[in-house]
Specification:
Aldehyde Dehydrogenase, Chain A, domain 1; Aldehyde Dehydrogenase, Chain A, domain 2; 2 domains; 7-stranded mixed β-sheet; 6-stranded mixed β-sheet; 20 strands; about 40% helix; globular; binds nicotinamide-adenine-dinucleotide
Length: about 500
């Protein structure tokens, strides 16, 4: 049953969304989704299992094989997607509150960034599918004794049923980032949101229905990875898997999908290098580095968790940076005063604390030693203050592994060659940052850094036409713009001779 509204206009939906309707899990199982700021239950959510995945894939398969959606024109699908984008904006306040409460993300960010970006994802892929260029080739060849004109065209067809699996850190943004290109291209899908933050995706499902997405085109199975995610990836009726989440899950999904030769895209974790050169604009580099590291309490795949500062500017930078970090306010994500909300779960905070404890046990010294905040008002949430290890040592676990919390490792470097080598000494390769007034230095770094993305004098200056994704253990494939549409389409060559 729909549960208590969070305020605003919408009832809180907490059941699976299959074939255009909300439904309980077949066995009636539920799990609580908690508010990370208090650890109180927000809602009991349906815990989908293999039988529910089966129902959802059946619905998606039918919608693909027999339904109108893949057969509609790009313009018709785009119209529905634009309506969905408009509905997201109409529900901005509600969705932003819900997301902030379920994910512990500052409301400022969910209202000003996540919900508008979710709407932009829909509008963007509506336009992208309408404007997608098609290819044709013209040739002349002899065939069976006679010269022939040859016209070859490439039909772009949807892949089929897509499994979309999302993490907890930006649930609504991630869901639309996958659903929008998938359905723009004419696919149908089953989305499995994170068990930690399922609520905004269920609200999105309701809005899909309202926008006119036909039944079965978008299905949502909430639940846990092994019970709901794994059967979805393994189902032979699923044609493609788009996953965003952690490295170990990504590897497991890639292995599982290989058994039925599914197309896979993986957006995984990172340990991104952020390089501040002697000639950087100091204020810009400080502000940019604070943002790159501590947004959403460091629970961002792109986080610049390895900060390299050149020797000539090191002392001045560190003094200013430290003052800025100390001024960050840890607190209730619903309050506009808070910069850092809680970590997603008690278990995740313990994991972050274990990283810090191990780093200290290995002899790393903390320039700033954060802890659970002392304020009684924050005692029941999963809060953790920013922590900085400096000088960090390249080979320690805290430097090698993704912590996914407000923990920074800080290094001093001398030359560009040195910092390139150290930036690349990681199995990850998601993003990178460099702050310098010398464009040649920035470009040389960008050419040599082993990462899917490099920002020179900026952080996450994003244009949805651009590729997003990483190399190495940060993932396979790219999302964004034509890269998303390439993934969600299959080219078919049709050759005509006359
Ligand atoms: P996770 O891997 O634990 O879970 C992601 C999703 O996979 C969840 O829906 C989960 O239920 C599901 N899942 C878990 N086990 C599964 C299995 N065996 N089969 C199928 N599905 C399974 O990741 P998380 O903790 O939710 O998210 C944090 C991670 O996501 C971090 O590593 C972060 O860097 C990464 N991330 C990457 C990007 C990117 O674009 N590169 C963006 C955001 C987050």
């Amino acid at each position: 049953m729909p549960q208590t509204p969070l305020g605003g206009d919408g009832a809180l939906e907490s059941r699976l969304y299959i074939d255009g309707a909300f439904a309980d899990a077949r066995d009636g199982a539920t799990f609580p989704t908690l508010d990370p700021a208090t650890n109180e239950t927000i809602a009991e959510v349906s815990a989908g299992g293999p039988a529910d995945v089966d129902r959802a894939v059946t619905a998606a398969r039918r919608a693909f094989d027999e339904g109108p959606w893949p057969r509609m024109t790009a313009a018709q699908r785009a119209k529905v997607l634009r309506r969905l984008g408009d509905l997201l904006i109409d529900h901005r306040e509600d969705l932003a509150r819900l997301e902030s409460r379920d994910a512990g993300k500052p409301f400022r960010e969910t209202a000003d960034r996540d919900v508008p970006r979710a709407a932009d994802n829909c509008a963007f892929f509506a336009g992208a599918i309408e404007q997608r260029e098609q290819s044709a080739f013209f040739d002349r060849k002899p065939f069976l004794g006679a010269p022939r004109e040859i016209v070859s065209i490439v039909r772009e067809e949807p892949v089929g049923v897509c499994a979309l699996l999302t993490p907890w850190n930006s649930p609504l943004m991630q869901a639309t980032w996958k659903i929008a290109p998938a359905i723009a291209a004419g696919n149908t899908c089953v989305l499995k949101p994170s068990e930690l933050t399922p609520l905004s995706t269920l609200k999105l499902a309701a809005l899909c229905g309202e926008a006119g997405v036909p039944d079965g085109v978008v299905n949502v199975v909430t639940g846990f990875g092994p019970q709901a995610g794994a059967p979805l990836v393994a189902d032979p009726r699923v044609d493609a898997v788009a996953f965003t989440g952690s490295e170990p899950t990504g590897i497991a999904i890639n292995l599982a999908a290989a058994a039925t030769l599914k197309k896979v895209t993986l957006e995984l974790g990172g340990k991104s290098a952020n390089v501040v050169c002697d000639d950087a604009d100091l204020d810009l580099a400080v502000e940019g580095s604070v943002l790159a590291m501590f947004r959403h309490s460091g629970q961002v795949c792109l986080a610049g968790t390895r900060l390299f500062v050149q020797a000539g500017i090191y002392e001045r930078f560190v003094e200013q940076f430290l003052a800025r970090v100390k001024a960050l306010r840890v607190g209730d994500p619903q309050s506009s005063e808070s910069d850092l909300g809680p970590l997603i779960s008690p278990q995740h905070r313990e994991r972050v604390e274990a990283f810090i404890a191990q780093a200290e046990a290995e002899g790393n010294s903390a320039l700033l030693r954060g802890a659970r905040p002392a304020q009684p008002a924050l005692a029941s949430g999963n809060y953790h203050e920013p922590t900085i290890f400096a000088p960090a040592r390249d080979d320690d676990r805290i430097v090698r592994e993704e912590v996914f919390g407000p923990v920074l490792t800080l290094f001093r470097f001398e030359t560009l060659d040195e910092v390139v080598a150290r930036a690349n000494a990681t199995r990850y390769g998601l993003s990178s940052y460099i702050w310098t007034r010398d464009i040649a230095t920035g470009m040389r770094f960008a050419e040599r850094v082993r990462a899917g993305m490099c920002w020179i004098n900026g952080y996450f200056l994003r244009d949805l036409r651009q590729p997003f994704g990483g190399r190495g253990h940060s993932g396979l494939g790219r999302e964004g713009g034509r890269w998303s549409l390439d993934f969600f389409t299959e080219p078919k060559l049709v050759c005509i001779a006359y």
